[in-house]
Amino acid sequence: MTQQRITVIKGDGIGPDIVDSALQILDKVGCNFAYDFADAGLMALENHGELLPQETLELIEKNKVTLKGPLTTPVGEGFTSINVSLRKRFQMYANVRPVLSFKGTKARYEDIDIITVRENTEGMYSGLGQVVSEDGSEAEAMSKITRAGAERIVKFAYELARREGRKKVTAVHKANILKSTSGLFLKVAREVANQYPDIESTEMIVDNTCMQLVMNPHQFDVIVTTNLFGDIISDLCAGLVGGLGMAPGANIGNDCAIFEAVHGSAPDIAGKNLANPTSVILASVQMLEYLEMSDKADAIRKALKEVIESGDRTTRDLGGEHGTTDFTQAVLDRL
Ligand code: NAD
Known about the structure:
alpha/beta; 10-stranded mixed β-sheet; two-stranded antiparallel ribbon; 12 strands; 21% strand; binds nicotinamide-adenine-dinucleotide
């Protein structure tokens, strides 16, 4: 069997620490991956003079599977988000963000198991927008939804639901106000729902969804929604299971996939050995499932569960007093 090559982008801020943690764990369970390391973000700007160097793009394309730390996009300096650029360039149209309760966190709820499927290439993140007055006092942005884009993401969500034995898909929208864009998304979601009579289909307006997620999150199973709503809702969902340190995400297209944490580079705790690496470890678990290595994925999930439940060397966001390296060692000890 040929050795699977993985492109690894360690990223900025807490990225290198949490990605190193995930790589140690992948090696410990005997994945036998070959890693090609690539730069992106601030690190790439320093080393290559650009945020997203050509050789990084080539490696992502060549290996097809990438594990990535968070990247810092400099604010207000004319840079387009690197993450948005990557998702568009490789047509990774589905952003799959699962949240799962682990006992032992400081979360307000137990037994949360929700997957947000976020459209990743259209909507308010189309990148179409500008300042329209000379004095800079007026700006506009364009949201773009296409029938093809809506159909492929909603179908993706239902296929995922079927594959994983899920019971319900909720389409989240704002069609009452955003009649053209969200209206088209909802229309297509209803049409696709009719093709999946074995799965319960519901729809909900995004503001109500936020309230319902806080008041009664157990009613949700799979959520499918447009780009901006999915971005916001998935952070809310991370809060239900103990915070951003617990939330992974996969960007999936027909050809390439990038696995990463939901959170950003966390500059407030960077370089302090404080970050919870669970987010990226769970992203690598998603990667193993994508590569059909479920036994190894299960082993890592089980070890993580044991560490968090017992409070053995957990990080501060989980109520512990330890750092990234101690937490990683606690997981390694159980593997
Ligand atoms: P953030 O997600 O980096 O941090 C928000 C809060 O969560 C901070 O208090 C941080 O300390 C905490 N946090 C995040 N991850 C944690 C972890 N693993 N363990 C413990 N605590 C954790 O959001 P931000 O500060 O708004 O953004 C910082 C930078 O990240 C920005 O440049 C932004 O553009 C970028 N960003 C990148 C991605 C990505 O690469 N996918 C996603 C979001 C934001």
